[in-house]
């Protein structure tokens, strides 16, 4: 158990840095890590992906608070955007979480693998939507939040890979989009976690120290480390060449996606 907790701490440290540095949400690396770890700690194969998604979202509650606080100190969080997008985020992520708990593990894994390839392609290409418009009003922003929430729950992320391009296309400066995305990660994580708890409640054969599809041991280790390392990622994001870092991270995502796809075959 001690070794497993150390592994969870290491996963959380990596996720925290990435959440602050790239605005992609630590879940994009947490989910593959937990998919590899959970079978060794008694999680049934048919629940591994759901447990990884639920635990990833639960940990993002902590990571997003730490990251958003650090970005807010630099004046990089647009709270007006946060207020407008949150209602759609809450509804979309909660409903998406409930749906995901009843989907076959294979389908969720395929969705996640495809998502990794799409994110990697976007990072390698450096494509950013042209900033040709302003942020929509409450209804439009909340509607976008609904879609971001739904997809975020299927892949266990804080939504940064979706919300950052959306805000950038609406003339929000990149660093401000990343900072606001960190704050948006909190309602995504709260609603998604509740969805996975409710959807996984009372399932047979789950190991001890789980709350629905949230592994509490993993949450403890990951959240503790990510809370401490997220501000480091924020600091690095304002000091390092983000484009080069994103290209390197994209190559890592491709390797992870290929490995997961190979495992399915």
Description:
The protein is mainly alpha-helical and 265 residues long. It has one domain. The chain has helices at residues 2-22, 27-37, 48-73, 79-101, 105-125, 138-155, 160-169, 174-200, 216-237, 242-264, and strands spanning 210-211, 214-215.
Q: How do the strands and helices of this protein lay out in sequence?
A:
Elements: H1 2-22, H2 27-37, H3 48-73, H4 79-101, H5 105-125, H6 138-155, H7 160-169, H8 174-200, E1 210-211, E2 214-215, H9 216-237, H10 242-264
Antiparallel strand pairs: 1-2
Helix pairs in contact: 1-2, 1-3, 1-9, 2-3, 3-8, 3-9, 4-6, 4-8, 5-10, 7-8
Strand order of the main beta sheet, please? 1-2
Quaternary state reads single chain
Count of individual beta strands? 2
Q: Which shape, going by the Cα principal axes?
A: globular
Please give the domain count.
1
Strand content: under 5%
Which structural class should the secondary elements be placed in?
mainly alpha
Poorly predicted runs: none
Q: Biggest sheet: strands, sense, closure? A: 2 strands, antiparallel
Main features:
globular, mainly alpha, single chain, 265 residues
């Amino acid at each position: 158990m001690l070794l497993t907790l150390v592994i969870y701490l290491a996963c959380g440290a990596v996720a925290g840095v990435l959440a602050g540095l790239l605005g992609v949400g630590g879940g994009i690396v947490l989910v593959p890590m937990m998919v590899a770890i959970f079978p060794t700690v008694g999680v049934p194969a048919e629940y591994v992906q759901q447990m990884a998604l639920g635990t990833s979202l639960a940990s993002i509650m902590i990571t997003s608070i730490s990251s958003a606080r650090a970005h807010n100190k630099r004046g990089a969080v647009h709270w007006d955007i946060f207020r407008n997008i949150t209602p759609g985020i809450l509804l979309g992520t909660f409903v998406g979480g409930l749906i995901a708990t009843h989907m076959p593990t294979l389908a969720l894994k395929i969705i996640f693998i495809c998502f990794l390839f799409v994110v990697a392609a976007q990072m390698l290409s450096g494509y950013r939507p042209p900033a040709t418009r302003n942020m929509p009003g409450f209804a439009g922003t909340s509607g976008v939040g609904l879609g971001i929430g739904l997809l975020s729950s299927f892949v266990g992320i804080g939504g940064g890979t979706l919300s950052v391009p959306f805000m950038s296309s609406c003339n929000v400066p990149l660093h401000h989009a990343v900072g606001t995305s960190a704050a948006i990660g909190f309602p995504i994580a709260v609603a998604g976690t509740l969805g996975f708890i409710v959807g996984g409640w009372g399932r047979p054969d789950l190991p001890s120290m789980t709350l629905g599809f949230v592994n509490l041991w993993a949450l403890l280790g990951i959240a503790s480390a990510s809370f401490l390392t997220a501000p480091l990622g924020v600091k690095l994001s304002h000091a390092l060449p983000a484009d080069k870092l994103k290209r390197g991270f994209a190559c890592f995502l491709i390797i992870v996606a290929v490995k997961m796809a190979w495992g399915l075959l």
